[in-house]
Amino acid sequence: MQDAIGVRAPQIGIASPLSDPDEVELLVSNGATEFYCGVAPSAWAARYGASWLNRRSRGRANLPSMEHVANLVEKVHAHGLPVRVTLNAPFYTGEQLADVLALAGEITAAGADGLIVSDVGLILALRERGVAADITLSSMAAMRNSGAAGFFRDLGVTRMVLPRHVRMSEVASLRAHLPDVALELFVLNDGCVYEEGHCATTHALGTFCLTEWEYALDRRDGAAPTDEERAAFDEAVDDYRRWKWHVNNCGSSFSDRGLPNGPCGLCAIWDLCDLGVSCLKIVGRDSPTVRKVRSLRLVKTIVEQVAGGGTREAAAEYAQGLRDTPELCGSGFMCYYRDAVPTGRGPRSPAGCSPSGP
Amino acid sequence: MSGPRLDEFARPGDAWSRAYLGSDFCQTLLPAPSTMLEAFAALRGRAAFALVTPPVNDAGLHRVGVLLDLLAAETAPEAATEVVVNDWGVLGLVRAHPSLTPVLGRLLTRMLRDPRLPPDRLEAEAPSTRALQQSSVTSPPFQGLLRSFGVRRVELDPVAQGLAMDFDAMGLAPTLHAPFGYVTTGRVCLFAAMGQAEEHRFEVGAPCRQECRRFAARMTDATPSPDAALITAGNTVMQRHERSVITRVLDALASREARVVVRDAPFGEVAWATEHLPSATRWIEEHVS
Prior knowledge:
The complex is a heterodimer of chains A (358) and B (289). By secondary structure, chain A is α/β, with parallel strands linked by helices.
């Protein structure tokens, strides 16, 4: 597929989900600079049932075997790009740890460039056993302050994926406190209603948070809520349902221009570049290939716009214009970083997005 | 809104030897320094104190640091003052205060607490069942890390699938919360939206008037088991567990150092704890159906 976007490669990376070796060529040509994938061996599922090996084990999110991982790694490496593999269940028990470690060893032997991990026990065990893998902290670790970042850095983590629910000002604070830690930030698709790293439900039983709950309001002092209180709550619930729809990729829809709707940080790319964020993460290992491709085009287009010298405002305006869904963007409910949507004029071309190639 | 007061939930009896103050789940609910010190002073000589802390950003970490400095300055080593931590950054701060004892909170004692898990369909003695009945603390490297940070006590919720962990063998002391267990939590809050301008609703970190201190909401749907009593309390979904579930889990703990923490409301920021299990059992019989 033709690369219709531009020629200058910015310093900031774009991490694409990958679930099939046949996707590699297409995703590289549309702007992926690195990949992440998962594996779900049948032996794990047979032994541990609903306790998945990684956060997304359903359907096509994962490769079925280590042979597939090795094949995929070879294809990605042929392009000179890295691929990391998720072992990011919220936790592993002591009994599971030996099996995860064995898999980690196989993944590393297959040539993968790193592991994406959230469980502290696994991070420690990988180091103790000398598994030679770069460790990226998964967003499942729900790390959001400099003390926790220092904790994980001291455990040997080399890059950290921040949680979905984070403010740009918090990213800036982390950068200021720990400039040596590489950060990866969500930029497109698949929101979470709750903090996934603190969610104790399992997707193996369906997506708990997308249930259409009915709510009955109670006052904590035992009195009956007033009509005004009920009205305010009902309005909040109506809005909450609308917000959840946006979080769920706007019903997995595309815009009239064929671009993916859903959680989005395109307007924030200027700021993320400015802060020296290492990589932008596109979510959706289980997405159809077409969604991955169009997501990459969107992100790469904005990165190129920023690298080309656009202002913060121009980049945001361009980002919103590409999708041309003012009703979705205007709600703010799709925004990963609502506090980063620019309201004033800013400087041009942040240093983090200056072109690194010819 | 004013902060939590100890008289929100009266001490159930003399055997309830420790008061908990604070929230496991929301940075906005960190107590003001004066509120914390007032509660600490009121308990002096009567009961021990545990400050409960939530996950925090850098601003919250600073606020927790101030609270810990003040608490440590007021604490004699024999007071056994505890800090419940739900954030690795906070654990690092507690380590700087030898007079404060860190306790691993429920958000870091990770295990499945999904109300939809069907306990009657679990296969006994199967690895798949044990994985549901155990937590992150069963991992030996994790236990080593806890030891290095001086953590001996870990906090748990009742779960319908039951627990299968030998805490004495792990060198850990378990604390069980009752009757409310957490299911999921996050930074976006339905109740905060009641008091927010439309453009800030469901925005992470937007100003909040703490409507959760006035309201909660029962949740109903056909999907979970019909007896799952789910409640949205602030930014968190809690489950009110039945007495049979709590009792079964308590029996399974079988630890010499087991502790029970009780609340009278799902988002109560004041709780009482006892290690005298007959007293805990009596409270559960009297207050939980």
